[in-house]
Write a structure and sequence with these properties.
- This protein has five helices and seven strands, in the order E-E-H-E-E-H-E-H-E-E-H-H.
- With 230 residues, the protein is an alpha/beta fold.
- It has one domain: Rossmann fold, CATH 3.40.50.300.
- Strands 1, 2, 3, 4, 5, 6 and 7 form a seven-stranded mixed sheet that branches.
- Strand 5, helix 3 and strand 6 form a beta-alpha-beta unit.
- Helix 4 packs antiparallel against helix 5.
- The two termini are 26 Å apart.
- About 2% of the residues have low confidence.
């Protein structure tokens, strides 16, 4: 779970993008990386292989210091989608604080999407993470293609939990920032319940989200172009 340094007043939050091969996980991180102010974003690391676009993970550290002096680091990862990388996916999930599940919206991909969803739930359980409390958002990607499922056609993914669904066309950057915003909203509330971010650390949700998104280009998104910050 979240890495905490009480003495230095530092928090490191880990977010993992999970989903089938070529569903758009790497595309999400690449789009986000381009929208972040250069002085704030870390190096985006991608390893391409002949059988998958991402062999291990992408990482993007985002730092900010709150008004009360709390230093927050946000790390974003993807997992490899190919079936042969099962053990790597399980390892990357260790200690995650939130998950964006990137689903291919095409009806033809429904079976593969469900298989990876169930695989994710099993791997979370294997890592001792409770899927009923862990912040999880489903991004329904590739909504620009024909024969796609709507938000109300995801009953197969909602048998165990009821995650929010964000429509997206990640290759055009649509829904990418909204997915992260929705996920980090849930993440803040989860960490506030367990750590007392507001009461103990004097870091409220508006400042948490505002400080992260104030350096992200919000033009063309469904979010206000100036993220609220206090």
């Amino acid at each position: 779970m979240v890495q905490i340094n009480q003495q230095a007043r530092e928090l490191a939050v880990k977010v993992v993008y999970y989903g089938p091969a070529l569903s758009g996980k790497t595309t999400n991180l690449q789009a986000l990386h381009q929208k972040i102010a250069p002085e704030l974003r870390g190096r985006l690391m991608t390893l391409d292989t002949k059988d998958d676009r991402t062999l291990f993970f992408d990482m993007m550290p985002v730092w900010f210091r709150s008004a009360a002096g709390v230093k927050v680091k946000l790390r974003l990862y993807t997992v490899p989608g190919q079936v042969i990388h099962e053990s790597t996916r399980r390892i990357v999930l260790q200690g995650t604080d939130a998950i964006a599940f990137v689903a291919d919206a095409r009806r033809a991909e429904a079976a593969a999407t469900l298989a990876y969803w169930n695989n994710m739930l099993r791997n979370l359980e294997a890592n001792g993470l409770d899927v009923r409390t862990l912040p999880i958002v489903v991004q329904l990607n590739k909504r620009d293609l024909p024969e796609v499922r709507g938000d109300d056609e995801l009953a197969d993914l909602r048998k165990v939990i009821q995650p929010p669904v964000v429509p997206a066309v990640a290759i055009r950057g649509e829904g990418v920032v909204e997915t992260l915003w929705t996920l980090l909203s849930l993440t803040y509330r989860n960490l506030d319940r367990s750590l007392g971010l507001g009461a103990r650390w004097k870091l409220d949700e508006a400042e948490f989200l505002g400080r992260i998104f104030e350096k992200i280009d919000l033009r063309g998104t469904r979010l206000p172009e100036e993220a609220p910050a206090r």
